[in-house]
Amino acid sequence: MPIGNSTAPLGSPAEPHLRAGARGYVVAAPSRHANGARYSWRDLETPLAPLPLAWLERLARPKPSVHAVHALKPAPSRGSSPYGRAAMRGELASLAQIEPGGCNNALNKAVFKLAGWVSAGELDSHELHERATEAGLALGLAYNEVEKTVASAMNAGYSRPRRKA
User: Whole-model pTM above 0.70?
Assistant: First the structure.
């Protein structure tokens, strides 16, 4: 069954991330770990274990559509302020330092913070959506994954307007 890429249905952070979609990947020997060490097989004779049935059941559940996530909308914007644009540039630029494997979570956190500036009237929602989508794609995330993450983070962040320090 096609199960795609996922982290949330398997739990986070205690359970593994699944990268089985068209743009997925498998970490196996001789891949290099972030600490510089290389992965190796413990026993070449031991077969790979199948995914647990509970995981397969959770992964088979229908995912919410991107359109359903857009339920909350901020008040109409008059455009981004210089302060809002600077906050957005800084937050999205920091994503370039993220290690593979943490990109989706980092994008979610950054967009959530920035959506608070939309509610505060400092950022235009369309500009944030466009720039965050570009940043997510630059991280190597799949377009559908980026769209879902950006929409979800924006909706959640709208309820927490930010204030200038």
Answer: no
